[in-house]
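Narrative progress, year one. The postdoctoral researcher (J.K.) led the effort to move from monomer predictions toward full complexes, under supervision of the PI. The following entry was the first complex the group processed end to end, covering 838 residues in total.
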Amino acid sequence: MIGNKDIKYNDIVLDLKNISKSYPGVKALNNVSLSMNAAKVHALIGENGAGKSTLIKIISGVIGFDKGSMFVNSKQVSYSTPREAFSDGINVVHQERNVVPTFTVGENILLEKIADKFIGAVNLDQIYRESQEYIDMVGLEASPSSRVDDLSAAEIQLIEIAKALSSKANILLLDEPTSSLSFHEANALLETIKRLRDQGVSFLYVTHKLEEVFEIANEVTVLRDGKNVGTSLPIEELDRHKLASLMVGRSQKGASFPVRKTATTEPVLKVKNIASKIDCHRKSFVLHEGEIVGWYGLVGSGRTELARILIGYDPAIEGEILLNNKKINIKSVSEALNMHGIAYLSESRKEEGLFLTKSITLNVCSSIWSTIRNCCGLINKRTEKQIAEGYATQLGIKAPSVNQIVNSLSGGNQQKVSFAKTLAAEPNILIIDEPTVGVDVGTKRQIHELILGLAHKNISIIVISSDMPEIVQLADRIMVFSEGDICGEILNTKDYKTMSAQIIDKCLNK
Amino acid sequence: MNKIRLIIRKSDSVGILTIVVFICLVMSLLKPEFSTFVNINVIARSISVMAIVALAQMVIIGMGGMNLSVGAIGGLVCVTVGALMAKMNIPIIIAVIAGLLVGLLCGFINGLLINRIHHFTNKLNVTSFLVTLATGSLFTGINLGMTRAVPIYGIPDSFVNIGRITIGGISLLVYLIIPVVLTVFLIMSKTGIGRQILAVGGNSKAAELSGISVSRVTIFSNMISAVLAGIAAIIFLTRLGSAQPTVGSEWLLFSFAAPLIGGTRLDGGQINVFGTVLGAILLALVANSMVHLQVSVYWVTFVHGIIILAAVGFERIRTIRSEERKDE
């Protein structure tokens, strides 16, 4: 019915040996190995940027690899298109929804069948009848003739799994399948996966939720910085602490900054029980003047959502925000920036932060056009250039001139331009989302020094980061986020060993 | 719950039908000449062209694109058929087939170019907008260059007479749309290519990953659209009696308005064949009513603008509502 009938339960269905993959300037994967047993759930875990998605892309044929070898059902393969992986029974259930929303459940599950037909008639009744088998298999409680856009995210997830099963896939790659599901929905999904596993389907389960790993996985592979730190470990040999330290336990690079005493100053920002439309977990915290608060947590733990309330992107619908002991209402991004001096530096600078095809000058000055225009409402090119040059020197932006197009700069310099753009607006409170994603080690240090320098100038700073060494190095106080809540607050002693242990503790003992 | 959703979706057509009946009632009360046999025939004949043009656009909207060249293709087919019959004395049936082949070729060119450029941009709607904007100009250019914008007269009587045949007092042309509409309905809802067009419109990535060839779907949907535009042009030709190079120049606006009024989703993936026909009926009624109410010709254009804005608004409200219903 599904999978391969004559599967031997200790067969290796997928075997990766010393896979390496480089992109210009980055080694995404370095000698990664992984072997998946038949009818088992194999968890692939690691922090952001550890190389999980690169590996998934290689296995599913989206990209190729530079070195190493890959075996599927003991046959050596090297895929150049997803279709090839697909015909070997490898199927990915992506994070983003890959269903046709205007189609019915049955049609989506058997879309392959529709792809086979051309002039021939599609018999919907037959499709509904045949899809019922897969609907039952994944435990979906919806009629095959109901429309997909009437269903919930969890149900759509099940449709995707049903779709994969219908194509006789026996190796399913699940890429953080529970990230948009509620607790109950996630549990139901895990039960389904277990059931299918016992029927002979093999799963590669990508996640960063440790609870799920212990709930479901038989074997675990841990990636860190594109390398194996644990290869196909049986779950019995692991416990939470061991796994968590494998995931994050890199040694700290570079000297720490001195411990600062800041929590004694007057709080500039007090937030009480705020929640927004998209994030209903009420959260409270305070931020002192000139303080650096680190928000640690994994993607989806609710950090960015909280930041978006503070910058007016998703205005608060509950709770109150006190700025300098005055109650304020932040209704839009422009209000947050211009009236309250709260600025945000996006983690995705290429999409949300910068005008890539424009000059440094334009980027830096884009947030302050309304303040530098002259009495006729015109903007003086020379003033703009002076401002841009000022920031370029101050922040050490390496470029031949400020007329340079931002796209041609390195990641680190682009990040500095983002900083300059944000600083030009002269904020009092700065929220920086993943300040050093995709920048090299040297620039990372410079950016850290820059953030510290800003704090010394009494700007209050929130650093959002999933990079534990960065948080421990930089923050005065650390707030730990997990599953949408703030689950702990620690004064940072900047001693990496004790701090990382405490942070992991807070994450786990929620 | 799903039953209710289904009813809400189906009720769109009921709503339009109500408006159509309402306009008919009001107009016949206000203007007795509106409900005369002659006028009804006039409206019906214009519906026969408009409905098919609207279907031509609907197919492409369903695929997630748009076809700005429907009118240009129509014009080119019209003069081709006219010239073949009047200047070269080619038998009617062969001229008509040749005209439809010209239409098919135009659609094929559109599809091919969209695929070529889509490969670089990955935005089907923007690509098809730009490509058909350009090819529309190309096709019109060929049309005007060959005819020098002079209408072709001397269409054989045997051809023009087809337009004059009536069955039960109603023009044959009106009956002609029935098989066309049914064919489009069957293609879009029952055949593989029809479902593939809608799958690409609903989520082209998901379609591609399921083995549907997006480029093949693009080409075929454009060919279907172009043939429909050609059929509309040939029907129009029987009414005109001379091949006007300007045929189709005013099709674009209502080709979008009718499907949107009729329940076709602007984002693609969902169409409504009978709703689109109802949309065309509504638009034809409005146009005819304006004539009877003696609205200045110059203001008719203005009203068209209002109608298409209303249609877009109508479509958006419906889409957003269906998304909100899901949240409940």
